[in-house]
Amino acid sequence: MGSPRRILFVCTGNICRSPLAEAVLRKKLAERGADDRYEIDSAGTVTDHLGEQADTRMRRTAARRGVRINHVARRVTTHDMERFDLIVGMDDRHLRTLRALAGRRSVVIRKLGEFGNASRAADVPDPWYGGMEGFERVFDMVDQSCEALAEWLEQGS
Ligand code: 4NP
After folding, report:
1. Looking at the predicted structure, is the pLDDT value of residue 79 above 90?
2. Does residue 85 surpass a pLDDT of 90?
3. Of all protein residues, whose CA lies closest to atom 7 belonging to ligand 1?
4. No. of H helices and E strands in the chain?
5. How many CB atoms lie within 10 A of CB 100?
6. What percent of the chain has pLDDT over 90?
7. Does 16 sit in the ligand 1 pocket, CB within 6 Å?
8. What pLDDT, on a 0 to 100 scale, did the predictor assign at position 140?
């Protein structure tokens, strides 16, 4: 893969994991003075929460850790497969949906857990039905993988 500049994160509802990853990666690239060289967005595989801001629990968890989430939920489209260089899902179901949408297009599709965890690419679990500790755990996983992703993006540039 060349050096991707347009990166899309995808989860199920686009109200917890992927808007968090979008905000975390943007912040990490800004800290490296590189955010203006990237386009970062997020989308979901289902329509249940279209037009909504991210879940309050996710936004509060992120805010406590210095990350501001500002995203309106939307569904991933086939057009995204042409617009983005790298699409990053949270679990294997997202990867299957994305691969089906991409068809023969050359967009690169990866799982977030692949970054920073060479031996085992864990799913980032859906925190929606659980307690606050689930949101903290999601934050930790997303933060760790986005650190590795930012490092990799900037090394390749
Ligand atoms: P997300 O979490 O995929 O991280 O945004 C979810 C939020 C809502 C639903 C599923 C996952 N839902 O089915 O409503």
Report:
1. yes
2. yes
3. 13
4. 5, 4
5. 9
6. 90
7. yes
8. 97
- 15 ligand 1 Cβ < 6 A: yes
pLDDT band with cut points at 50, 70 and 90 for residue 120: confident
Work out the number of other CB atoms within 10 angstroms of the CB of residue 106.
9
Between residues 2 and 155, the one the model is more confident about: 155
Three-state SS at 8: strand
Catalytic residue (one of 11, 80, 91, 146): 11
Tell me the Ramachandran region of residue 83: left when phi exceeds 0, alpha when psi lies from -120 to 50, beta otherwise: alpha
The encoded tokens of residue 110 equal 């990866």
- Confidence check: pLDDT of 157 > 80: no
Contact criterion met (CB below 8 Å) for 44 and 11:
yes
Q: Are 148 and 115 in contact (CB under 8 A)?
A: yes
Nearest to 57 by CA among 8, 20, 82, 32: 20
User: What's the predicted TM-score (pTM) here?
Assistant: 0.96
Structural domains of the chain in order of their starting residue, each with its CATH number: 5-146 (3.40.50.2300)
* H helix intervals, 37-77: 56-64
